[in-house]
Amino acid sequence: MGTILMIFLFGSAFGLIIQYASLNKYNVISAQSELKNNTVLKTILLTIGIGAILLSVIIGFNLASFHVKPFVLGGVVFGGLIFGSGMAILGYCPGTLAISVGEGSLDALVGIIGGLFGGLFFTILLPNIQWLIGLNLGKISLFSAIGDYHIIYYTTVSAISIILIYFSFLINKKEKNTNKKWIVSGVLLAFLNSIVFLSATTNRPIGASTSFPYIADILSTTTNNTYFSKISTPGNWEMIFLFGAMIAAFIVSVIKKEFKFRLIYSNWEKQKGSSKIKRIIWAFVGGFILIFGARMAGGCTSGHIISGGMQLALSSFVFAIFMFVGLVITGKLFFSK
């Protein structure tokens, strides 16, 4: 699983990459929910496209292993919709919350608090909603479907990757955006995730949302259950990872003299006004919903969509579709004047 220092450094690199292209900013993510800024979408498509090729190569050389999330239909569908809704309301995803807190975003801090309560609530409620999450249908991916037919597998991976990369640049072309930072971040995220996957480093994918119930369960001493036993190792890993991302973002923002405590950003003020109480309430609610949905699905933007997408996992693509549906529908309704 890697040493604490290694995990911290990987988290720092993650934070710097995300921060570089402003992928953690409230204005960027909230605008994505209204389809007014597609920086997040095209970066994810590019990352998965490049990352799928990189990962298939290093796994083919036995330098890494698959870590596909199981396809649990109710979890990925309902969890995806809930997660997307929370992401639209909050304006952050689990990984970007820590980065934005490092920059001084107070609404992100409130979102983290809401997420901790969401994680704790999920731990307590899980035995009663297991029927809704559904049966585990297995770890279904392109590799599990094709098997050991290497030529067919690598050809299919290449074709899917080219399509995803093509659409990322097509979206950018339609936006007529000359900013290239998303390209740099997309490429670097693909390489970083591939390095994290290596057996010689941590032998696991990047993730973020598991740390929320892990920390919440420890703080509330709700650890005597099977769910905490299941998430204790990845939760601890992700906690260190996100701490590294937060510290890196803090250092860079201080050096660039951009660190500033902020609660309300321009997109929120334009749509919802300048009430601080209102923003705090909705940031808490959004964080709660975000993490609850992530835990239903078994992952989030980084751990499910990007890491799972790079493995061409069915569960991750289904989650991504329903997350995007929840994100856009909630964005349109929540920010409707």
What does this structure look like?
This protein has 337 residues and is an all-alpha fold. The protein has one domain. Helices cover 74% and strands 0% of the residues. α5 packs parallel to α11 (226-255). The N and C termini lie far apart (48 Å).
Shape, per Cα inertia axes: globular
Low-confidence stretches: none
Please estimate the helix content.
over 70%
Q: Domain count, please report it.
A: 1
Mean pLDDT: 95
Number of separate helices? 15
Structural class: mainly alpha
The fraction of residues assigned to DSSP E strands is under 5%
First-to-last CA distance: 48 Å
Largest sheet: number of strands, sense, barrel closure = none
Radius of gyration: 19 Å
User: What is the N-to-C order of secondary-structure elements (H for helix, E for strand)?
Assistant: HHHHHHHHHHHHHHH
